[in-house]
Amino acid sequence: MAAEIDKFVNIYRTLAQFPSISSGYILKNGISSMKDSITVLSSWTQRNLERTKNTKFQQTHVVNLGTKDKTNMIPTDTSNEVLFAFSKSEKFRAVMREVQINEVKKFNLEIWNHYNIIKNISLDTLEIHGDVYSDGEFGSFVWSNNEDKLVYIAEEKVPKAEPFYKPKAQSQDITPSSSDSSSEKPIKGAEYLYRQDWGEQLVGKVQSVIVCYDLTQDSLSVLSGLPADLCPGQVVWTPDDDGVVGVAWKTTPRKLGLIFCTCRLSYVFHLNRAGEFRILSSDSEQLSVRSPRFSPDGKTLVWLERGAEGPHHACMRLVKYDWSTGKSSVVVDTVEFGVKIGEPLCEVADVSQDRSDEESNIFYGVYSLSLPRRCWLNDNQRLLFTTGQRFETKSYVVDIESNTLSELQSPYRGSLTVLDVYNDILLCAHSSLVEPLFPSYDTLDTLY
User: Fold this and answer.
1) 81, 234, 353, 361 - which has most CB atoms within 10 Å?
2) What pTM was estimated for this model as a whole?
3) DSSP per-residue codes, 206-262
4) pLDDT tens digits, 326-339
């Protein structure tokens, strides 16, 4: 019996050594032309059995697009980096670092240039907000286009509280010093008030706020103007940097959880620097939205949406929004059974149950939880997304003008996931039932 247990333990230990890829990024400065080499950063997670926790690490790859030769650098441990983001020109790299001190979370915001760290801000000492959000539902960490500001999502600062009855100083003549005084008066009896959070895997996240760091003024501020019954997240900068676009979830009458639940009532919103708030998605029907993404030229905004009812996760549609006119239209509609690839998808006509086409030519709809951070091609007309299709994960190129899509053809068998897109170069991850995830790098013409 002991021998059998050891056998299974060794098998599990071997399988735990296979890391899983979480994200990838194509460095702009690593590309001089389409035929030259590219530099890619990939982030991985691996189970550490001895420490009983996951280890995160980042690996640098240098790939020659012509010969397909690649060089992998030694990985670097990034377990305490919860967020990172490059500025548009890659002049700066921002890192949000989480450290545990006496079982208390503390967050540091770091700004790096090509040579050294230039800013290091201990967010806890400023007491502007609570914990920083790094989850896939709310989390954001985005540079402005002119590289002077950075936005992220954090927990709203909880007002100070004190008990109704507290011990008084023995001497009534003692007065607090000016350094101990605060303009914020504690709320009596509020230390045990119940604050409803978002539940599963989002425990402790009650009310989110949008925080902006100004690099030139070295200042932090919480953006104002959002209604009190909305929780913002997934924010991106507008093309002119005059505000942000994001997703806001309705918090009343109650929060019911968000992880894998795309049926919660939410809106795509625009909040400018003056604090003016407006809803961009339809407010005439109950919708759930996610993943707003601007085209590189800033003229088109796309997002995913579905009805805010029914099963926890269902088929979604891809919507485009003209930033200049404010008009929106459906690019890929919801699919009930399947539609032939190549036909217009704005008004889906499902194929009959008696299919004569091969299964590979059938598209079953968009079931993505998010779009890639960088999903657009250089023509500002086509974008890429990944979605589950029956027993596989497939990736597609969709044309927002003709409302048609094409499947990316991978040279490997199994599932294909788009991680990043830059300069018509695609960074993808391949996996199958018998192969772990591994990254691949291809130009657009080899896959499409």
Assistant:
1) 234
2) 0.88
3) --EEEEEEETTTTEEEE-----TTEEEEEEEE-TTSSEEEEEEEE-SS-----TT-T
4) 999 999 999 988 88
